[in-house]
Amino acid sequence: MAGDEQATTSRILILATDACAYPGADNVGQIHSEYPANTYIMRVPAPAMFPEEFYLRCFEKGIDGIIVMSCGHECPYEGAYNRLAVRIGEVHKQMKERGLNTNRLRLCAICTVCAKAFLKEVRQMGELLAGQASASS
Amino acid sequence: MSQTDTQSSAQQQSPESEQPRIGVYVCHCGGNISDVVDVEEVVRAVAGLPGVVVARRDMSMCSDPGQQLIVDDIRNSKLNRVVVGACSPSLHELTFRGALSRAGLNPYLYEHVNLREQVSWCSKSDPRGATEKAIRLVGVAVAKARLLHSLDPIRVDAKQHVLVIGGGISGLRAARDLARCGLAVTLLERSPFLGGRIAQLSHVYPSRDDARGLLRRILDEVMADPNITVRTGAEVVSSSGYVGNFQLQVRLHPRGVNGDLTSEQLQAVIEACPEAVQSEFDHGLVKRKAIYRPYPDSSPSAAAIDWTTCTRCGKCAEVVDGESITLDAEPEEITLDAGAVVMATGFDLYQPRSGEYGHGEFSNVITLPQLVRLMDETGPTGGQLQWNDRPIKNVCLIHCVGSRQMPGIHEPGPDGRLNEYCSRVCCTATLQTALEIRERFPEINVFEFYQDIRTYGRGHEEIYEDACRRGVTFLRYRAEEPPTVSGAEGEAAPSLAVRVKDTLTFGEELEIPADLVVLSVGMVPRDIAGLVETLKLPCSADGFLQEVHPKLRPVESAVEGVFLAGTCQAPMDMTEGCAAASATAAKAAALLGRGHLELDPFVARVDLDRCQGEGKCVDECEHRRAITMVETEVDGERVTRAEVNPALCNGCGMCAAVCPHRAIQVEGWRLDQYDSMIDALVADYPALEHANV
Q1: Of A105, A104, A99, nearest to A85 (Cα)?
Q2: Could you give the ipTM of this predicted complex?
């Protein structure tokens, strides 16, 4: 059961775009769908503003998983999504070098009404962290 | 209401130069939050955080007394930062910023925590987890609040000129209302004629007003208004700028004909033209020439040349000896400045697939707009209801064609999309047409095949009742079992039969012979991909332009300063389209009325103490001219440093990510604030350990 416990005691950071994913997360609440309470949503205009070291610092500080919920190609900021995707790829490389599981950082696109996709992303990250904890216990 | 005062020596009011004095307020939201989250525990847990001076809870922070609580604390406890945990910031962030302003505090010294949509409503079965989450999120907000500083809105001059794109009824209404507010208006219509689809109707429900009479009245007002400039044949090709200061590049296509032709000359040049295409005004029932005028009372009254059809053979010009007709004119491009833009680009009609209810197979399967033109006295038959010179005995009207489509039952369109929405206007339009047939041609039997009758507007249900009284026969089908249309093979316009399993007669299978089958087609989004791309306008899942919020910010697009009038936003009738258009005019006038605008200050700012002039931010920025390198003096030396044009910066923060010195940051969303928020998220909260939540 160590895995289950880890799934709820681990901390998942969600970086949600102000234009799409944040209202999308609101939508999940509005339809009263539940997801684990160990998920912490931070609003951001465009996650393309974070440099690589921001993510690495989060892991160092004790964040277990990060889901970057972007607007995808619907991003209101020209070029931001492509830049973000490249940067996340770069962070993945650096995570590998440090022996971190790259699945702990996920990039996805969530629209304002993407409740199912939101829940799926949260569930998958929770399962990953639970599996990781089981493997190490 | 409870209060936990952790510090009482309050003497300062001013912000960042002094120690943070933070007020934290946690809302019960009438139980929406407190039924799940232990609000009292949250208040206790955050009261001891560094900088927190006041921590309170209240049943309804957004109420007047709730807001007044904040105002009083700012004044009495000398607060210089405020955090409120309540519902989503989309609903009340501005409300609480307003409370700070009223108390004399800069409104950007405020941080909002979403405890309802993103905590209590999504964690109902886990109150302990929800309470911990709430404590940590409020802690995160307090950490950010400690690093907030005052910001001033960006003030820019606003052009007192509005561009209205689309010259149908919504565009005309918006232009007229804007002009009445004293704003200069340019009305851009892509086709050579104003009026849009209303000109194709003889009358409109529910009052049966003369449609072209209504159109004529508003056209006369628009044309006579000195504040309005009308440009037909005008196509927007690109745009730049921002709210208050848009620049649109517009291509003006030549008309080819000036207004000096007499009606006899006009008739002669039209007859001389050898090129013909299907008339869009009559929905393809007849053809028109390359030089044309859709109807005699069109506006402008001068004919125009359709350049995609015209071969420039010159036969029209020969009739009038070259006068009044110019075949060699080229399009001209102009730039128009505007403070705001109103989109009134209208809709397209659903085009039935070949074979859908026999459409395209049998010529006597037509659409409702075609039937309306047939019954119009200005239409191809002069208002006589006949088909191929044959009398009509039975007309069958089928509702919901191209609307309320369902996965697995209907085929997606060429764009892969199903029209799952209801087009709203077709039910009443179909009923009105059925009623009119029965009134004008009582010898004709009318049958309506419907899923639901959605006569939602005032006076619409009466049309349904009148249709029933006048003998229209209704048959109801289920979406899963739509009617089928069959006819004799090989005949272009055979006698048709419509079969249906009628739920009004408990599933009886009926077959109705038909001389004319009419498909009540819905509205689909118009293809305005170029405008959507250049103006960066969001579209909803159904493809129509999307407003920010139907109740909180109706008719506003997500692009500030661009408003949505009429059916470009969703299916609606003329009444609703005009109401939306008037709303856009009111909003645009309110936006531009002061002559200047205050924009949110969440844009990049350069810290000259850190900037080394490397210019990576300039290379990274996608927004034209938002960041430039400029010469400046630092410690007596001439150096190059980055400079941000706040009016052009959109606050995406891509520049912040690449600066190795963190010298450029987006105000309100600084990286040092995020670092601090992460620290607060993973911090130990003694109250959590104590309470074992």
Answers
A1: A105
A2: 0.95
